[in-house]
Amino acid sequence: xxxxxxxxxxxxxxxxxxxxxxxxQRSQRRQVQTLxxxxxxxxxxxxxxxxxxxxRQAHLERCREARRQRxxxxxxxxxxxxxxxxxxxxxxxxxFQTLRLSHSNHDAPVAIEKSKRPDR
Length: 120
Hints:
It is a single chain. The protein is an alpha+beta fold. Helices cover about 50% and strands about 20% of the residues. It has helices at about 1-35, 50-70; strands spanning about 75, 80-85, 90-95, 100-105, 110-115. Strands 2-3-4 form a 3-stranded antiparallel sheet. α1 packs across α2. The longest helix is centred in the N-terminal third of the chain and has 36 residues, at about 1-35. The radius of gyration is 20 Å and the shape is elongated. The protein starts with a helix and ends in a 7-residue tail after the last strand. The model is unreliable at about 105-120 (pLDDT under 50).
């Protein structure tokens, strides 16, 4: 009597994990595809899939490097990728949560020392 309930609960957790994984992959593909299709603010030419994927990978590497350099600090990573247009060289920001492209203005990730972070 209890065994079918346990199996159903385990199946539910596994199904949720699989759904979450596919959802995250779909979101990443959509972000890269959207950026690839958006026109450059300077030359109005789409940047392409290769440049979009390079911007995503560069953002991920900056995040990893920030964590490696200061493991004692909480890092509020910027919510955009910096992309260089392969046609004109102009840099722009792709805000991957809103799927919008804007002119670039490099900012470093904001770090908050653990002792100074606000209480929750």
